[in-house]
Amino acid sequence: MNAIECDNLSRSFGSVRAVRELTFTVSTGSFFALLGPNGAGKTTLLKTLLNLIRPSGGRATVLGRDSTRLDACDFRRIGYVADGQDMPDWMTVGQLNAYCRPLYPTWDRDLEGRLMTVFDLPADRPLRKLSRGMAMKAALITNLAFRPELMILDEPFSGLDPLVRDDFIQGLLELPGDDRPRTVVVSSHDIDEVERLADDVGFLADGRLLVHEPADALRGRFRTVEIVGPGLAGPSPGGPPAAWLEVGRPAENVMRLVHGAFTPASEAELGASFPGCRVTARAMSLREIFLVLARRHQTASVEEAA
After folding, report:
1. What is residue 280's predicted lDDT score, i.e. its pLDDT?
2. How far is CA 298 from CA 44, 104, 202, 261, 302, in A?
3. I need a surface site. Which of 42, 113, 234, 277 has the fewest CB within 10 A?
4. Distance separating alpha carbons of residues 306 and 300, to the nearest angstrom
């Protein structure tokens, strides 16, 4: 069973289509990164999955349950930490933990104590006196301590300084295997922060899922290629191949392109196509790949509107 399944899931607000016919799955046991710029529809999608917002069309299942039927029993299996979520700021950290304990039959006091130590949180500090980063850590503890099967984190790194971000990530990743949630979904517009976390990636833009595949496969098939040598000034006969997503010619003897279907044989094939030229290929980060896909989507949207 997949942890999450979406089938043509949509959500509109009046004429604004925030989520557009999304069909994808999140495998149980994966660390799925939902990436995209602000306004892409990430938060709307997650709130729809959690039954905080009703879908306008399609359907989704979460841990095998229809998302529109999730109830208190289901939420004992799901953790949710979001940027800017409301917290009882008059409570201390210790009081918040004590309040949450009886709500979850699976709450682990030993794990709670270890997390308090890992995050170096003072139990007697009121939440209103915590920094933004410490408040996010307090929220994470109350979600990890009941050992959720699925953890959903919505922009957890927003506004955090680099040191606190690293503490947050290590606190989640460095837990022993049995203490970590089985499946984790993180949404973020800060792609660099989640690149080292994700084993599965989805890129969202304008409510549409541009790509969804394992992170290693995505990085494996994208390359920035530079070809240097004579005879590059004229256009390619018949136009560039479909796998060449961006082609630029900064100088008469230089061609740069993004190859979206790169294989071990591609470099030799390019060399044969441009004899006498030097061909170099460089791996791309998830951020660079997303920018290429986002620009192509933006161009296609403009052409469609015209």
Report:
1. 93
2. 20, 45, 17, 21, 6
3. 234
4. 10
Q: Which residues 6+ apart lie within 8 Å of 162 measured at CB? A: none
CATH topology of domain 4-213: Rossmann fold (3.40.50)
Rounded Cα distance between 31 and 50, Å, is 18
Q: Domain residue spans in the chain?
A: 4-213, 223-283
C-alpha distances in Å from residue 58, one per residue of 22, 31, 35, 180: 8, 24, 22, 31
Residue entry with tokens 């517009």:
189
pLDDT at 247: 86
Asked if residue 219 lies in contact with residue 284, where contact means CB atoms within 8 angstroms, the answer is yes
Place of tokens 């294989």: 263
Determine how many CB atoms are found less than 10 A away from the CB of residue 248: 10
Looking at this protein, which amino acid is placed at residue 68? Answer: T
153 Cβ partners below 8 Å, 6+ apart?
Answer: 81, 82, 184, 185, 186, 187
Are 72 and 240 in contact, with CB atoms under 8 Å apart? no
CB 130 within 8 A of CB 92: no
Residue 112 has pLDDT above 70, yes or no: yes
Helices (H), 174-282: 191-194, 215-221, 266-273
Token pair in block for residue 23: 């069909």
Q: 246 pairs with which residues across the strands?
A: 258
Which bin fits 187, alpha (ψ -120 to 50), beta or left (φ > 0)? beta
Which three-class secondary structure state does DSSP give residue 255?
Answer: strand
Query: Does residue 232 register a pLDDT over 70?
Result: no
Average the pLDDT over each of 115-119, 158-162, 216-220, 257-261 and give the range with the smallest value.
158-162
Other Cβ atoms less than 10 A from the Cβ of 27: the count is 15
